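RECORD TYPE: protein structure
NAME: uroporphyrinogen-III synthase
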Amino acid sequence: VTRAPHQAGPLCELIEQANGIAVRFPVTTICEVGNLPQLESAVAQVRQADKVIFVSPNAVEFGLKVLKTHAIRIDPQTEILAVGPGTANRLREQGLPVSGIPLDQFNSEGLLKMPQLVQVKGQKVVIFRGEGGRERLHDRLVALGARVDYVECYQRSLPEQIDTRAMAMWRNGEIDVVTLTSNTAADHLLQILSPTDHDLFENSVIATVSPRIEQYCRQLGCTGQILVSAGPGDEALVSRINDWRAQARRQ
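PREDICTED:
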């Protein structure tokens, strides 16, 4: 499980409930950005926003911290959109109403299909995200005539240390599946591995949550089997791994 330490728990629990052994191997550290002038300027745009979009649970966690730091509240008339159920749940836990989430695709493409984002000409849209996210959502909304601002409220970086026990297990062939739930995680995993260990990534069974990440892993050189879950949630990911395991046992 390659997720950041504070996010790995629910997936690990589901794996263990399915009689698997969850090995934590965090490849990403997520932390808030410094109080930069551009961040203060960006978050001030929320006051005039017609729509606010949160693109991940991390965007909710760190975005709301930024709003609190600058004593800014989202206007009750502002529509709040979430990229998926997990993000929406985080918002509701904080007492914020969610105007909508995509029906099926829980990504930028799914957001852009939402009726709330079809007619946005002249509207101000603020997107809460991490540093260096995808540009697809921004570019399409601008093309539709919206005025779009980012609040980049968290950053992803490599961990200071790697788990040597988990690394030894992987080298010894004791890891059956590696979960990767973002392109950033795939990038970080390759950066963490020494050149002599790149074959571990290239030949391992990878479990992920979208065809987009599957394609990215292929571009990075993965030649092993890639399991893509039917949906973005942890339950769907574990279900896909279970199906693979059952099929492997029958062979």
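COMMENT: The chain has a mean pLDDT of 93.
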